[in-house]
Amino acid sequence: MRWLRLLAVLGLMGSLLPVRIAAATPVTVSLREDVEEFGRQMRVPGIAARLVGPNGTQWEITAGLDGRGEELSAESPFVWGSVSKSAAAAIAVGLADSGELDLSSAVREVLPEGASWVGDDVDVGDLIHHTSGLPHDVSLTDVPRSQSARSAIAESPPPRHDPRGAFRYSSLNYLLLQAVIERATNGTYSQALQSHVGRPSNARIVAESRQYNAIVPAGFVPWFGAPRANVPAPDGAGFGYGYLAGSIEALGRYAQWLAATPLLRDGAAATVSTAGKAGYGPGLYRERIAGRDVWWHSGAVPGYFTHIALFPDTGQALVLAANRYGELESNEFAAFARFITRRSAGDEIAAPTVAPATTLPVLSAIAGVAFILLGVTGTWRLSRRGRLRSARRTIIYGLLTAGLYLAVGMATWFAHSLVGVPSIVLNRWAPDLAFVLIALSTASIVTSVVMVTATVRSAMARHRR
């Protein structure tokens, strides 16, 4: 099968990690080593990081291969994930500064096609701060489409939403914000991005589906611990929330520019309280770390992970990008991103212990095989003449057992959808677990049918005796 061949090839790729690093200083050597070690431990095919400031790059590392099997370089593209949100917020703030958009305007006024998505009192600022009441509905995001956000909103059924006010992280806010920007500028989101972010930061950022498809290589998702190639198709309506793309060079230029903007440098950016220690501002979390104000955000799509941390007091920015990510490994990537942010801020902490996600898929597979073997054994028992004393007992035993297997099969097929994770989403973010669940569901249903057939045949044989 194609995935088996990919698994074998990518397993070899995971061991090939050619490394290019900038000139060493005693202060930065350990961080570079930590990045390289994290890449090895997590079997990341390619990883890059750098710390940039007003005087240029202070340290950097690129290690491994991109999705084409070529050596990673400073120009290799990554998908930025939710780091894209800070760019959308920066565009909105820029439009507000030029008088083209009022952040206090109601969404229903500036975006009539989005009026049914939020309450009448929700304004543009609520979208930026995730206080609109929109849910975290993954079925409406990460959809392969080339249409604009305005078109996607007009053609999609509105989600159920809560009243505005409390912080509730949802990419739907930034899908709406992209549409607001498209309408305010009467142009494409890519044009607005280049005008308000790309050119000012001198960063080559991709925000157009055709260009994205031409330059972005496959990333890698975990497949029972090994990296498996995955090409994240762009969401044309999602460049505002997660599908910008660019190299570590572009990410560094963008982040350093953002760190030096008056909005962050002068502490003028408003934040709202979240459930944790950090506040949330213009597409970024704000937190006090080692006595410093640090703005940060992580981002991910299936196959790519990025992280930025901004230090406005010095104009510095830390950027990290990796071409491997799956939802079952989210804690490992988040822990390392937080570690490297705190270390860069001056906190002396130890690197976290990380490992590829294999436990849940492997244990699920083992449990599934054991469960099916029990079913096979039960079917064999039903087929043995004389094992049970009566046709009635045969029927009761067989149908109850078949019902159990049918119930398990249906549960594994539908349960994740009932909790808001459709099969297509699970397959995208955790393909190994999705494979196990589909295989278990199919095998359970087949076992149930076979057991019913064996029950009927065995009962009929006993009845004739």
UniProtKB/TrEMBL annotation:
Record-linked InterPro entries: AmpC-like, Beta-lactam-related, Beta-lactam/transpept-like
Organism, scientific name: Tsukamurella paurometabola (Corynebacterium paurometabolum)
Membrane-spanning segments: 362-382, 394-414, 434-456
MF GO annotations: serine-type D-Ala-D-Ala carboxypeptidase activity
One Pfam family, short name: Beta-lactamase
Domain spans labelled Beta-lactamase-related: 32-337
Annotated signal sequence range: 1-24
Keywords, ordered alphabetically: Carboxypeptidase, Hydrolase, Membrane, Protease, Signal, Transmembrane, Transmembrane helix
Enzyme Commission number(s) from the entry: 3.4.16.4
Protein name (record): D-alanyl-D-alanine carboxypeptidase
Family matches, as PANTHER family: BETA-LACTAMASE-RELATED DOMAIN-CONTAINING PROTEIN, D-ALANYL-D-ALANINE-CARBOXYPEPTIDASE/ENDOPEPTIDASE AMPH
Coiled-coil region: none
